[in-house]
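How a chain folds remains the central question behind the approach discussed here. For one protein, we set the task of working out the structure tokens from the amino acid sequence alone. The sequence in question and its structure tokens are set out directly beneath this paragraph.

_____
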Amino acid sequence: MLRAYVGALISTLSRQSVVQADADNVAPPELLDNHMVERKYASNTWERQAYDVFAVKMSAKANIFPCLYGSKGYKDNNLLYLFLPSDNVAKKEVADICARAIRAYNRGTNRTVDGYQKLFWALLKELRKLDSEPWPKEITENTDSEYWRFCFDNQSAFWAVFTSAHIQRHSRHLPNFCLIYQPSWTLDRLLNTDAKRKSITEKIRGLVDEYDHPLICSPDVSNYGELGTTESREYYLLDENKTAICPYPTL
């Protein structure tokens, strides 16, 4: 008989990767999505066999599982799985694993747009501390300047942040906290003339307006070096057309 498994930590609206530890500094149990389970466990393991039984039930087309939200969550890879070491779920040790997993999951899904913004900038602050290369002389450290760009390892880059908390700005919504890192040289090479930059920028803004309708493209989206603008306002766009200010005057 297959051991007990739990696939009940479900959110059909959003799912977060859980990385923080409990208050007692014990790392939370590993919560896995569909792809992670399939990569981690071989077909002859009890974990994979339990998952496969569940997957067949959720994806059956002839005999559709009656909980439509559950089956949709599976198909959209929005479910998380916790594999328990025993089917005696009343044992204190097993219940403790469940408790720590649920606690970690809940903490990972309660962040707001503002909360994610603080987390993002805290990451960049930590990266700056870890950078062993000097800040490029041609790039200002003043985050409110039109000539500021975040740099690491002597390379400037553009960032774009996606979160599950973004609801209105669809172009910044993903079920996971996602950070896109793009070295500046890639954009500079693509937009190497004023005509190309103008054409591509207008096209992208038009597509964003359609994608995010009724919310229009953020006025903080601009060209690097334009007076009165700064990339620090573009990295993390809010869920409304208000400016997201970098919490660090210099970085």
In short: The two ends are 57 Å apart (CA to CA). Confidence is low (pLDDT under 50) at residues 1-24. The CA atoms of residues 186 and 192 lie 10 Å apart. The helical segments are 34-40, 46-59, 68-75, 92-108, 113-130, 184-190, 194-212.
